[in-house]
Amino acid sequence: MSNTAKRIGFIAAMYGCSSEGKVYVHLSLGRVVEELAKYYEHVYLCIPIKKGSVDESRDFPLIAPNITIVPQPFYKSAAGSMKHPVGIFNAYRKICRSCDVIFTRGVTLHPLFFYVLAWLYGNKVCNWLIGNPIALLKAHKRDHFVKDILSYAYAIHDRLFTKAGRWLVDGALLCNGEELGNIFKSKRTFVTVSSTITEDEIFERADTCDKNVINLLFIGFIRPEKGVEYLIEAVSKLKLSKPWHLILVGPTDRFGGYCEKIRQTIECRNMAQQITWAGYVSYGPQMFNYLRNSDIFILPTLSEGTPRVLIEARANSIPVISTFVGGIPTSVKNEFDGLLVPPADPKALSDAIERLVNDGAFRQRLICNGLQTAKQMTVTKFVEKVHSIFNTFQDNKQ
Q1: Which residue ranges does the chain devote to CATH 3.40.50.2000?
Q2: What is the tens place of the pLDDT at every residue in 232-286?
Q3: Does domain 7-195+379-393 have CATH number 3.40.50.2000?
Q4: Which portions of the chain are predicted below pLDDT 50?
Q5: Torsion of Cα atoms, 241 then 317 then 337 then 239, to 10°
Q6: What is the pLDDT of residue 382?
Q7: CA distance 367 to 299
Q8: How far apart are CA 345 and CA 298, in angstroms?
Q9: What is the CATH number of domain 199-376?
């Protein structure tokens, strides 16, 4: 624990659910919060709170006794937050008054409120930047024209306020990947690959592709920027000596039209028996079962920060294929602990899959190196880095 910073605030726009005296959050948030609770006397978590039933994706109960919830009004999006400026302002004010240092995750909604309050109360701030919304919007049009324009304008607004806010409070930026690190370059910009895996979840094996069927795996939201249509095109081109099977793990409810288009493509290519839609799967035993019984993991994304799933796959000894986008090259070193291909390129994806199936020595080398990489990217090591960044503020005072 730091000698001076004893109370940390953690602000995020990821909502939690409150039910029967407990608060449940997404595992990717909860594990970081629980780990921070080991370093500080008190953690104040400021997130939107939904009361009542617990949503399927909010499956991680917060249990550390030194965590206090500072609730924001419930919302699920930046647009939804616009209805609650007073409630969000009051939550930010309580956090700034209560804490020595503040850690924010992703987009800081109503950033003018937050940064001015942090400046007035003298808080030291580190903003964890997890993705590039502008690149995301460029990769695929998500809504109709007006919404896309407004979303793009908001993303630019957020980038400008993040830079200005860091300058105002003389804060730090923790960026997922070199791409974001270069965009937000400053005297206190740090690059990371964030993770939520723990050491006891690492599963070691020497090789895959040793069964009668080659099992291919995708895990992620089934939405346009994940590039799933290019994966479907790629597997339709495969020329392997063994049959293959692809499992798509991830929710499909947000982009129904996109998912239906993919289903139609699968039917037209007569691949319905070779592709399984698994739907949403919580992180844990069921997810581990998919990871540990698959031969190759593929993430054909068009825009990304440093996706956790690439660490999770390597931690389960699966060779990974992904793309040269966003922060992925910071997480995966091409031909060392994974294979990277250009985005939106079904032929390159198909060739990469065939190479991993056919070249056993190369595949085993990627698995071994990927496992060693994953061991250096646990949630414990990520939070150690966060803690060390806040300690640099204290060191500069001395």
Answers
A1: 7-195+379-393, 199-376
A2: 999 999 999 999 999 999 999 888 899 999 999 999 999 999 999 999 999 999 9
A3: yes
A4: 1-3, 397-398
A5: 10
A6: 97
A7: 16
A8: 13
A9: 3.40.50.2000
